[in-house]
Every structure is written in structure tokens, then in C-alpha cells.
Amino acid sequence: MQLPPKVTDRAFERLAEIGAGDQGQALRVAVEGGGCSGFQYEIKLDSPSDDDLVLEGNGQKVVVDSVSLPFLANAVIDFTEELIGARFVIENPNATASCGCGTSFSM
Question: E strand or H helix at 17, and its extent?
């Protein structure tokens, strides 16, 4: 059974810190063709659409469109702060290979 992606508390907290929900914005996580491994993630602030799956927490929203949803089944959307910078990351069990930049993957 395909479960929707999960969003960590840390990711919701980061969205609250940048005031996304206050501006009516959600974090959009989409999958599109391209990148060095065949698919790549697009992560941006956006307004929710009618056909989006909306994941809510801490007063914040993360949205995934219906086309991207199958690619993100059981994935975890997180926020990490590392030496190379702070960013939203996706741990995707569907990806068979990914590249070093972490934004591209194949299935």
C-alpha cells in the first residue's frame, strides 16, 4: 500500500520560522523529469492548488501535486542544517539511485 509522504517536525518548524503559513504559502514538493539521474525534486514556496495533497503540521502546510505523489510514496520530507548549508531534503525509499547533490534520483 502506498502511503503519502511524511513531513518531520523539523521541516514544519522551519516553515514556521520563515513565516510561510502567515503569507498563505506552502512548501511545494514536486517531482519532474530531468537532473543527472532521470528525475529531480522541485522544492519551493507556492500557493496550494485544488488537486494537491496537503500535509499539515505546526500551522504550516506542505503540498504535493497528484502527478508527483506516486514518486513520493512513503518518502520523508525533512529539514537539515549541515556545513554545506541548510535545506529541505527528501528521503525517498522509491529511489534506486541518487546523485551527490541529493536533488536528482532514478527509480
Answer: helix 9-17
